[in-house]
Amino acid sequence: MGTGQSGQPGGRPEDTDRPGRTGLDHRGGGDGSPAEAADWEPPTETERLLYRAASTGDWDTFYERLGNTHLFFPQRQELSDVLGGARLPAFRSEQPPGLSVPVFTRGMMPPPTPGQVYEMTTLYHLARHWLRSADWLAVNPGTPLETFVPSRPRRWKRHAQRCDRLDQPRLMTLRTGRLRDTVAHGMACGALPMVDSHELWNDPGWHSRGYTYQRDELRHLWGITSRDTWLPRLAALVHAEHHDPLWEFVLQVRTAFRDAYHLLPDAGQWQQTTEQVMLGRTAEIVDATNRPPDFDLDTAIARTNALIERILRCEARFRADGVLGPDPGDIVRSVTAWDFGVGSGMARWGVGARFGEVAEAEEALRRISEGARSVYRSWADFAAGYLLGRCLHAGDEEFGTWYTELAAVHRLLRADPESPWLTVPWSDLPGDGAAAS
């Protein structure tokens, strides 16, 4: 790292606001224009904007964009396990001369390697906790976008403080990643939560918001602390065994009623039919065991009736928000999409926490894709199933902020030209070939 030419030969970083070196300095040609690197494709919109700003010398825009994105610094895994990712690394570069702190933008992150992890930071955080001995901030070192930024923490803070978009949901695509094959389809099954969390929807080499963050999230939300606790959770999601089976049961009763009578039951018919099925199954249990059931049947029926009413309220809200079509016949047929969507994330979260390998995540994503396509007919069908599962998972909560945010993401995924719902076919997927196709 750091093998280019200094922007100001013989000068110290404090003598200039210009970068000491950029990746443009060693790509051949003469004027450092983007055309010189026509064979290099910026992996995300962030890198494209940084590249354009650096190539034109627009450093105000460069700093502003840098201040409006998550940055990641490398760390030995055992060090992060002890320190929680709190220590910035540094290396000594020859050109430009001095001590440099390396950071990467999300699209330029190297693939996971044993013993090496990445922790998340921001330009604002770096400005507040800067190493006084450091001369340079090495942005994406060793890549075509490599830029050595002079040590100017006060300037960084000014730019970072003006950035108000860092936490807004937005669709981010890794343009150099998988885009149309079965693995891409499996990742697209997680697009709603990924975009809601402003993550790359198609990155199997997951870094999330850093190694320590990912481990903490898995521990706090899922009780996952090791590979041995991650694998069973992932398997349950891949096989659609995580959701409450009662949810799927009542939806299947409605589907069976429609198939038998060629019309949808109203609320009363649905509840009455479900009760009849429950009574019949309970009688079968009693006949087989010669004992009464180990549950209170009246309570179970009351719970089922309440669930049916909640599903109908959710579907009415979905029609108002465009998640379902306006026709009352547009309904949710299954909530297994909830498991598949969460499983799409879980496969990659395990990689970020170093509980699993990328190859394992990709195999899980293929199986998620196959499972989703065996149940649903389209991305719209799948999305409605995921959102209903999310609503039922919320329990008694009625369409809180989490729902309005997901509904906004749903609208984005229906309209954005880069949305996987528009670029990844639901069926007739290409084979697992090249990454980008």
From TrEMBL:
InterPro entries: DUF1266. Residues 1-10 have a biased composition (Gly residues). Residues 1-44 are annotated as: Disordered. Pfam families: DUF1266. Residues 12-29 have a biased composition (Basic and acidic residues). Residues 218-426 form the DUF1266 domain. This is DUF1266 domain-containing protein.
